[in-house]
From TrEMBL:
Coiled coil: 576-615
Native source species: Mariniflexile gromovii
Protein name, UniProt field: histidine kinase
Domain PAS, first and last residues per copy: 310-382, 438-508
Regions crossing the membrane: 12-33, 253-275
The organism's taxonomic lineage, starting at the top: Bacteria, Pseudomonadati, Bacteroidota, Flavobacteriia, Flavobacteriales
Length: 842
C-alpha cells in the first residue's frame, strides 16, 4: 500500500498540504455553515416567540374586551344605566389589567359616563361626529355586534384601541358600552419598550378592507420591513404585527468560518511543514468537533424548553377561558383537538380518539342539522361562521358552546383545512336565562298590581312605571321617563309636587302627598302617592320605589258629604222662616199638633242624615281602609320578590299569608263600598264600546291558575268571534269575575263552561259549573245582600254574601237581566243578558 502511486503522490509535502487545506476548509466551513443556520433559527424562534406571545395577549385583550362590554351593555339594556356606574367600571378595571378607561355613549353619540374621569375629560364628546372615532362607531352600529376600533388618537392623549358593544333597547340603537386600552398599557404588560427591551422594534397595524390602507398604532417606520409582517385574523378585521430586530446581530458563524479558514491554513502548513504530525492534527479536529456538538446540544435543549413553556402558557389561557381549538384536514379527513377541546367534552386526550362522527353525535339532536348546515354553507361560500349550540353527553349533561370556524383554500379554491375555536358558555347562558326570567317575572307582577308603581334613580328621575300608573296619568311609558312624569300633574299642583319631591330626594327620606293627575282629555284623577328609598345590603341608596293610589271616589264622597251638611242647614232655616210667617192664631190653635210635627220633622231629618252619614261613612272608611290595603299588598309583593334582600322559607310563608289575607280583606272592602253606593243610589256606570271577548279572555286568564290548583278546567263556547258591546267594561268584568270565582269556589271537580251567544240584539252569557248546586227554596235568597246559604260557624266558604247582590244591581243598572238554574249536587247555570248597542243613561 505504501508503494501505491496515489499514496506516494499524497505523501509529497505540498500535495499533502493542499489536500489537507481543502479537507480542513470544507470541514470547517461546513461547521461554520451549521452554526450560521443554528444562529439564524435561534433568532427566528425568538421573534416567533415574541409574535406568539403578543398574538396571545392580543386575543386575550379581545376576549376580555368582548366580555366586559357585552356585560355592561346587557345591564344597560335590561336595567338602564347603573346608578353605581363608577363602582361597576372600577370593578371592570380591577379585573382586567389591559383596560384604562370605561365609557358609556348615548344613542346620539355623546359620551355620557367615563371612569376614571381624572385625565379622561371626554364627557360630551360626540364620537359619531369625530373624524378619528366615527368610522369605528358607525362600523359597530352597522355590525350590530362587538367591534374593535384602532388605532385611535385618544383625546386623553396617546394611541389606543377602543372596544365597543352596541346597545339596542326594543330594537332601537341606544348607544355603546366601551373600554379603552392604551397601547402603552398593552405593551408595558409585555415588557415591550425602548427603556425595557432594545432587542426588537415593534409595530401593530390594522388593514382597512375598503381602502386597503394600513393604519399603524405606533410611530415606528416599518415601510422597509414588510417581510416581518405577521397577519392576525380578528373579528374586527385583519391586523398585522411586526417584530423587527432592532439591529442585525453579528452571526458568530463568521468567526467559525474565519477560524476554520485559519485552521485550514495552519493545518495545511503544519502538514506541509510537519508531515509526520498528522495524528496531533486529527486530535485537534476531533476536539473541536466535540465542542461544536456539545454547543449544538445545549442550543437544542434551550429551544425545546422555550417551546414547551409557550405551549404551556397557551394551554393555561385556553383552560381559564374555557376555550378549545380544532382543525380538520380535508385530505386525510383527520380531526385534531387541542387540550381545551378535550376539557370541554370531558375526555382524556391520551386515551380518547377524535373523529367527525363522534363530534356530530355529541351535538344536541335539535341543533345537529343547524350546525352541519352552517358548516357546509361556510365551506361552500368561503365565509367564516360563528354559532351557538348545545352539546349533550351520555350522562345527560348539556353544555352551551360558542363555535367559530374558518376554512382555508389552495390556489384552485379547493378547501384544504378548517380551523375552529370553541368556548364553553354554559355559565354565561344560565346567568342570561336567570336574569331574563327574573325581569319577566317582575314586569308581569307589577303589570297586574292593583296600584300604580313607579321607580326612580337616586336623583329622582323616573326609570319605570307600571300599567296602573299609566292608566291614572294618561301617559305612555316613554313619556313618563326621567322628569316627564311632571307633565301628568294638574297645573295647580305641579310646582308644589316638584318642590316636595326634590326636598324628599335631597334628604333621602320618605315621600307622601296627595295630588291630581290631569290627562290630555282633561280628566282629573285624585292620587295619594308614597315612596321610600331602596337600599342594598351595605345600606347604600340606589333609587326609590313608590305607589300611587286612586282616591278620587274618597274625595268626591267627602265633597258630597259637605254639600249634604250645607243643604240640611238651609232646609232648617227655610222651615223656621215659613213657620214664623204663619198666622199666630193658627199657631196657638194647633200648637200641640205643630210641636208634634216639629218633633217628627226633626226625627225625619235625623233619620235622613243618619242614612246619608251611614253611606258616606261606609264609602269614606272603605277608601281609608282600601288605600293602606293596596300599599300592604304592593309592598308585601315587593318583599316576596326579594328586592330588599333574601328571605328564608318561614319569612316567605308568613309574608304570603299576609298578602293573601290583605287581598281577601280588600275584596270585602270593595264589596261593602259597592253595596253602600247601590243602597244610596250613587252607583254610576259609563257606556262606551269595547271588545267583550277580549274582556272575557282576560278574566279567564286571570282565574285559570286558581281553577287549575283545584283540578278544574275552564272552557268557552262562543258563537261569534267579534262582539262589540256598548256598556261599562269595568262593571261587566266585575260581574264575570264574581260569577267565575263563585263557580270555582263551589266546585271540586269537572269543567266550568262559559257560553256566549247573541239573541235578538242581546248578549247572552252563561256560566255553567258542576259544583254543589242550589236548592229551589234558596234560589230566591241568592241575590239578597249579606245572605249566604251555607251560613253559620260551620260554613266552608268565606265571603260577605254581597257578590251576587252587586252583580244583580250592576246588570239591571246596565239594562240587562240575570237568572239562575240549579239542582243540588248537579251544578248551577247563571245566565245574564245585556243589550249590545242600546245606550242607557244613568
Amino acid at each position: 500500500m505504501k508503494n501505491h502511486p496515489i499514496y506516494l503522490f499524497l505523501k509529497r509535502p505540498l500535495i499533502a498540504g493542499v489536500v489537507t487545506f481543502i479537507i480542513l476548509l470544507i470541514i470547517s466551513q461546513y461547521i461554520a455553515y451549521q452554526k450560521f443556520i443554528i444562529n439564524e433559527n435561534t433568532q427566528k424562534k425568538e421573534i416567533n416567540n415574541q409574535v406568539n406571545l403578543i398574538k396571545e395577549k392580543l386575543q386575550g385583550l379581545v376576549m376580555y374586551s368582548y366580555t366586559a362590554t357585552k356585560t355592561l351593555a346587557y345591564n344597560v339594556e335590561r336595567n338602564g344605566i347603573p346608578e353605581d356606574f363608577d363602582d361597576v367600571a372600577k370593578e371592570l378595571l380591577e379585573r382586567n389589567k389591559y383596560f384604562d378607561v370605561v365609557e358609556l355613549v348615548d344613542g346620539e353619540g355623546y359620551i355620557t359616563h367615563v371612569y376614571p374621569l381624572k385625565g379622561n375629560d371626554v364627557i360630551g364628546l360626540n364620537i359619531l361626529k369625530s373624524d378619528s372615532a366615527s368610522s369605528g362607531a358607525l362600523a359597530t352600529i352597522k355590525r350590530k355586534d362587538f367591534f374593535i376600533a384602532g388605532p385611535v388618537n385618544l383625546k386623553q392623549g396617546g394611541v389606543g384601541i377602543i372596544s365597543r358593544q352596541p346597545i339596542f333597547i326594543d330594537g332601537k340603537f341606544s348607544g355603546f358600552s366601551a373600554v379603552v386600552t392604551k397601547l402603552s398599557t398593552f405593551f408595558n404588560d409585555l415588557n415591550i419598550g425602548i427603556d425595557i427591551d432594545d432587542r426588537f422594534k415593534y409595530q401593530l397595524s390594522k388593514v382597512d378592507f375598503e381602502t386597503g390602507r394600513e393604519e399603524y398604532f405606533l410611530e415606528n417606520d416599518v415601510s422597509t420591513f414588510k417581510e416581518y409582517a405577521v397577519p392576525i385574523e380578528m373579528s374586527a378585521g385583519e391586523w398585522k404585527l411586526y417584530v423587527i430586530p432592532a439591529q442585525q446581530k453579528f452571526n458568530t458563524a463568521i468567526w467559525f468560518a474565519l477560524f476554520g479558514f485559519l485552521i485550514s491554513v495552519l493545518g495545511s502548513l503544519g502538514v506541509w511543514y510537519f508531515l509526520g504530525q498528522s495524528e496531533r492534527l486529527d486530535k485537534l479536529i476531533n476536539k473541536k468537533l466535540l465542542e461544536q456538538e456539545a454547543e449544538l446540544k445545549s442550543i437544542h435543549e434551550f429551544t425545546s424548553k422555550q417551546i414547551k413553556k409557550s405551549e404551556s402558557r397557551l394551554n393555561k389561557a385556553q383552560e381559564i377561558a374555557k376555550i378549545g381549538s380544532w382543525e380538520l384536514d380535508f385530505k386525510t379527513k383527520k380531526l385534531l383537538w387541542s387540550k381545551g377541546m378535550f376539557r370541554i367534552f370531558g375526555k382524556d386526550f391520551k386515551k380518547f380518539e377524535v373523529s367527525q362522527e363522534m363530534f356530530y353525535n355529541a351535538i344536541h339532536p335539535d341543533d345537529r342539522n343547524m350546525v352541519i348546515s352552517a358548516y357546509n354553507e361556510s365551506v361552500k361560500n368561503n365565509t367564516p361562521y360563528r354559532i351557538n349550540y348545545r352539546l349533550v353527553f351520555n350522562n345527560g349533561q348539556v353544555k352551551y358552546v360558542d363555535d367559530q370556524c374558518e376554512t382555508f383554500y389552495d390556489e384552485k379554491q379547493n378547501p384544504v383545512k378548517s380551523i375552529g375555536i370553541m368556548q364553553d358558555v354554559t355559565d354565561r347562558k344560565k346567568i342570561e336565562e336567570v336574569l331574563e326570567n327574573s325581569e319577566l317575572l317582575y314586569r308581569s307582577l307589577t303589570s297586574h298590581a292593583p296600584v300604580g308603581i313607579f321607580h326612580t334613580d337616586t336623583q329622582g328621575a323616573c326609570t319605570y312605571v307600571n300599567e296602573e300608573w299609566m292608566k291614572y296619568s294618561g301617559m305612555n311609558f316613554d313619556d313618563a321617563m326621567g322628569y316627564g312624569w311632571l307633565k301628568a300633574l294638574h297645573p295647580e299642583d305641579r310646582e308644589r309636587i316638584e318642590n316636595e319631591w326634590k326636598a324628599a330626594v335631597l334628604k333621602g327620606g320618605e315621600f307622601k302627598t296627595e295630588m291630581r293627575f290631569q290627562d290630555k282629555k282633561g280628566k282629573i284623577t285624585f292620587i295619594e302617592a308614597k315612596s321610600i328609598g331602596l337600599f342594598d345590603t351595605n345600606n347604600n341608596l340606589y333609587g326609590y320605589i313608590g305607589t300611587a293610589t286612586d282616591i278620587t271616589e274618597r274625595i268626591n264622597n267627602q265633597n258630597e258629604l259637605l254639600n249634604y251638611k250645607n243643604n240640611l242647614e238651609k232646609l232648617v232655616d227655610l222651615r223656621t222662616e215659613e213657620l214664623n210667617d204663619g198666622k199666630e192664631a193658627l199657631l196657638n190653635l194647633l200648637e200641640d199638633l205643630n210641636l208634634q210635627s216639629i218633633e217628627l220633622e226633626k226625627e225625619k231629618v235625623k233619620a235622613q242624615s243618619a242614612d246619608l252619614m251611614k253611606s258616606a261613612f261606609l264609602a269614606t272608611m272603605s277608601h281609608e281602609l282600601r288605600t293602606p290595603m293596596n300599599s300592604i299588598i304592593g309592598f308585601t309583593g315587593i318583599l316576596l320578590k326579594e328586592f330588599a334582600g333574601p328571605l328564608n322559607e318561614e319569612q316567605k310563608k308568613q309574608l304570603s299569608m299576609v298578602k293573601a289575607s290583605s287581598e281577601h280583606l280588600l275584596r270585602l272592602i270593595n264589596d261593602v263600598l259597592d253595596i253602600s253606593k247601590i243602597e244610596a243610589g250613587k252607583l254610576k256606570v259609563f257606556h262606551y264600546p269595547f271588545n267583550y271577548l277580549t274582556t272575557l279572555e282576560k278574566t279567564i286568564d286571570f282565574l285559570d291558575p286558581q281553577a287549575s290548583k283545584k283540578g278544574l278546567v275552564l272552557k268557552t263556547e262562543i258563537s261569534r268571534m267579534d262582539i262589540t258591546l256598548n256598556s261599562d267594561e269595568r262593571r261587566i268584568e266585575q260581574v264575570l269575575l264574581n260569577l267565575l270565582s263563585n263557580a270555582i269556589k263551589f266546585s271540586n271537580k269537572g269543567t266550568i263552561k262559559v257560553k256566549v251567544d247573541v239573541e235578538d240584539d242581546m248578549l247572552v252569557t252563561q256560566v255553567i259549573d258542576q259544583g254543589i248546586g242550589i236548592s229551589k227554596k234558596n234560589i230566591n235568597k241568592l241575590f239578597m245582600p249579606f245572605i249566604q246559604l251555607n251560613g253559620g260557624l260551620s260554613r266552608s266558604h268565606e265571603g260577605t254574601g254581597l257578590g251576587l247582590a252587586i252583580c244583580k244591581n250592576l246588570i239591571e243598572k246596565l239594562g240587562g237581566t240575570i237568572e239562575v238554574h240549579s239542582k243540588v249536587g248537579e251544578g248551577s247555570n247563571f245566565i245574564f243578558k245585556l243589550p249590545i248597542a242600546e245606550e242607557f243613561v244613568d
